[in-house]
Known about the structure:
Blueprint: E1 4-5, E2 12-13, H1 23-39, E3 41-46, E4 52-54, E5 70-75, E6 81-85, E7 89-96, E8 102-106, E9 118-120, E10 125-131, E11 135-137, E12 144-147, E13 151-153, E14 157-159, E15 162-165, E16 169-171, E17 175-177, E18 180-183, E19 186-189, E20 192-195, E21 198-201, E22 204-207, E23 209-212, E24 215-218, E25 222-224, E26 228-230, E27 234-236, E28 240-242, E29 246-248, E30 252-254, E31 258-259, E32 265-267, E33 274-276, E34 285-289, E35 296-300, E36 348-352, E37 356-358, E38 367-370, E39 378-381, E40 392-397, E41 409-412, E42 418-421, E43 430-433, E44 438-445, E45 448-453
Parallel strand pairs: 3-5, 4-6, 5-7, 6-8, 12-15, 13-16, 14-17, 15-18, 16-19, 17-20, 18-21, 19-22, 20-23, 21-24, 22-25, 23-26, 24-27, 25-28, 26-29, 27-30, 36-38, 37-39, 38-40, 39-41, 42-45
Antiparallel strand pairs: 1-2, 7-10, 8-9, 10-11, 31-32, 32-33, 34-35, 40-44, 41-43, 44-45
Amino acid sequence: MASSASPDLKIQLMATGENSGAWGTITNNNLSAIEEAIARTTDVTFADDAPTASVTLTDSNALQAGRNYRLNLIGTGTAGHVLLLPTVEKSYLINNTLSVDVSVRNGTAAGTNLFNTQTVPAGGAAIVYTDGSAVTSAVSSASAMEVSNVLSVGGAASVGGTLGIKGNVSSEGTLSVIGAVSVGATLGVNTNASVTGSLSVGDGFTFASAAGTGRLDVVGLASVGGTFHVEGNASAQGTLNVKGAVSVASTLGVEGDITNEVSSITVSSFSKILEIKGGGSNEGGIQLNCRDNSHGQKVIAQPHSEGVTNEMLLPKGANSTLVSEAGTATITNKTYLDVDGNLRAVPVSRELATQLGTAAATDTGNFILMKGTASSTQTLVLAADTFSAGDIFTVVNSPFGGKTAAAVTTFSAAQMNSCFVAGAETSTALVTLAYNGVASVLFASANGCIITGNVE
């Protein structure tokens, strides 16, 4: 009986009594073949004009590329790369150094199984198993796993136990966590993430959307493109950035800042202030809607042109309503004070020592101090078209400055259409203010006034 090859590794199986004097050489070759299948690496080269490469295994115990455990894919190319494996039962560790994904199949270039394949991503590695007709992933589940560098998932990732990763995690499909997952660096998921257990991320994560019934802890930056929903607790020590909606059934704890995508809304962990920034032609503001959200009221900052930076404190005491600048309201129990906290004093607009003077619009709201000398009479002219309806000012005929009891002040209203002493029925062109007297002049129109006080 002649020697034969083993069905998978092609080890030479010798028949009884043959190969006399050659057993040592054949056995050494067989042991080298076994070592090749367990520990050795071979390069498999691709090119732009040759996107399909194959490793073969024939009935020989000589060294062969298809027997190596580790296949190192090298070369060039842009797309459509295929690696063909021998039609035997065997496991391979495939390292893809190319810049494109490589599809791993059984068969030959002329007859390739297009369905039972595995893809090794560009720059990635995979352990695959072939039964001679189909290529599958050699690792489909693990009770616990620790990855020291980068974990890249092309499809769905489901963890029932504990997955510990010291480097980065990237998932093109759905990340589903039932147990506990710990990522020391960045976690990136292009689609959805579902967490029933605990997901702890040391650096940051990016999700299209995230939903969890357990606990989510993030030490660094957290970014969610869609809806972020956690039925348990969510804790972020860095920045939490969510483009969609945030829903947390329990506690949301953020030790850093909370900001939206364009950083126009910031909650500072230091000042404890919610800041809403303006931009373009719009000032920062906040709108408070009614319970039906059919209408709302806005609180908006002063325009940039005003250059205003200040603080507005809410009212003390019982429940109340803020006073509108335009609306009609009744104000009670209020005392108007000046800036020093005292009852408002009427300021002196000017002192008049000459015998003749004219009231001016700048006197409105103030008082004029008449300070003539001795027994002289001073005259204050009330000119037409100087004041508006509602303007009022006060005149004091001062006893100071040397005035005697005979010194009076007269109001000359000859230029006015009408001037009345309060309570009088007829207009007068000349009104006298007594010594040490006080009078107020109220304008009913630009050419009409009423004078009240120590006058006749």
